[in-house]
Amino acid sequence: MLPENRNRKMAIPICDIRWLLLAAAVAFIFIQMRLFATQSEYADRVAAAVEAENHCTNQMRLLIDQISMQQGRIVALEDEKKRRDEECGQLKALVKDLERRGLERLVDKVQVPVAAVVIMACNRANYLERTINSVFKYQGSVASKYPLFVSQDGSNPQVKSKALSYDKLTYMQHLDFEPVHVDNPGELTAYYKIARHYKWALDNLFYKHNFSRVIILEDDMEIAPDFFDYFEAAADLLDKDKSIMAVSSWNDNGQKQFVHDPYVLYRSDFFPGLGWMLTRTTWDELSPKWPKAYWDDWLRLKENHKGRQFIRPEVCRTYNFGEHGSSLGQFFQQYLAPIKLNDVPVDWKSRDLSYLIKDNYEKYFAEIVKKATPVHGENVVLKAHDIEGDVRIEYKDQSHFEIIARQFGIFNEWKDGIPRTAYKGVVVFRYQTPRRIFLVGPDSLRQLGIKDR
């Protein structure tokens, strides 16, 4: 073989090897580039994972810090609760101690009033002045216990000026411009205005001024020297015995010839009025259904008593001098002018009034009625005159009672089947003192558990 042919044959394999090497080099470079790209991608992912892990770690630390703070607050709150519980325990112990010492009626060293006293006025300035002066005569030493109010119905300038001339009372004015519509022709509109005024005044004293008790006087009354002591003792009775609806300072049969003992009090089914005290609890019940007129007669209805009774004295603690007024002087000369106003100083704080509690009183009253000598037949006044000691006279019905009452000269009026001053149908009064006369209803002895002799 020629040398040039041999060289040509050798050049062909060398050329193929170069192409192969070049292809391998390109493949290698491509692989390296892919590896580099893959490594970069993985590196970015690792970096992102590390960053996420660091973020999670930071968040975890923040949560741990917050939990620690909350735990600290919980511990602080628990400590505060323990401290407050200790303070509450100390305060409870202090309150009990104050109650034990009888100081629960003191608030910031200011005495809680026993009752507000309100004088109901309208257009009688001279009467009002007399009543205010009578109250101030005995109220001065107990003014903090019995703050005085004057409530005027209407705009009479003399009454307003007179009330405002006193600096130791609070003046209230009821201006009512709503027309009055009477239920029956011929009725006096005055009774409708009076009922509106009473409701307005008592709502104000109980709900605006927040008194627990109120004593109501009218602008034609004088009070006895022991008026305030009497009502303070009566306030305790009201608190103890919920069967007492109100306490009055008046006795309808309190004329001089029919009374004797200033220390004696009675329970009555008949509302006396004319200087009386009631509680806020009772007013809560009465206010929503207060009548349009004739409020005092309305209070005497049995349906409003709900089995409750009233406390009244034998000797009046108020005197009514109002001959001229809305009632046009009815009964004044016969029944009001001769009333005896108590003038005996009674230390009511030292008196034991537990006999007036319902269960005690039923036994007490039954016993004194039982001991009275029964009188029957005609001429009972003459027969009673000849008997020493208490006398018991039974009446058959209302007309029979009225006959006997007129013979003695006592009130013979009834309201809703109840004689004035009666307790279980029994009317008691003195006759040629100190003898007591008991006018006993047909069912009274049975109600008192007494067997007639």
Automatic annotation (TrEMBL):
<comment type="pathway">
    <text>Protein modification; protein glycosylation.</text>
</comment>
<keyword id="KW-1133">Transmembrane helix</keyword>
<keyword id="KW-0333">Golgi apparatus</keyword>
<comment type="similarity">
    <text>Belongs to the glycosyltransferase 13 family.</text>
</comment>
<comment type="function">
    <text>Initiates complex N-linked carbohydrate formation. Essential for the conversion of high-mannose to hybrid and complex N-glycans.</text>
</comment>
<dbReference type="GO" id="GO:0003827">
    <property type="term" value="F:alpha-1,3-mannosylglycoprotein 2-beta-N-acetylglucosaminyltransferase activity"/>
</dbReference>
<dbReference type="Pfam" id="PF03071">
    <property type="entry name" value="GNT-I"/>
</dbReference>
<keyword id="KW-0812">Transmembrane</keyword>
<keyword id="KW-0479">Metal-binding</keyword>
<dbReference type="InterPro" id="IPR052261">
    <property type="entry name" value="Glycosyltransferase_13"/>
</dbReference>
<keyword id="KW-0735">Signal-anchor</keyword>
<keyword id="KW-0464">Manganese</keyword>
<keyword id="KW-0808">Transferase</keyword>
<protein>
    <recommendedName>
        <fullName>Alpha-1,3-mannosyl-glycoprotein 2-beta-N-acetylglucosaminyltransferase</fullName>
        <ecNumber>2.4.1.101</ecNumber>
    </recommendedName>
</protein>
<dbReference type="InterPro" id="IPR004139">
    <property type="entry name" value="Glyco_trans_13"/>
</dbReference>
<dbReference type="InterPro" id="IPR029044">
    <property type="entry name" value="Nucleotide-diphossugar_trans"/>
</dbReference>
<keyword id="KW-0472">Membrane</keyword>
<dbReference type="GO" id="GO:0000139">
    <property type="term" value="C:Golgi membrane"/>
</dbReference>
<keyword id="KW-0328">Glycosyltransferase</keyword>
<dbReference type="GO" id="GO:0030145">
    <property type="term" value="F:manganese ion binding"/>
</dbReference>
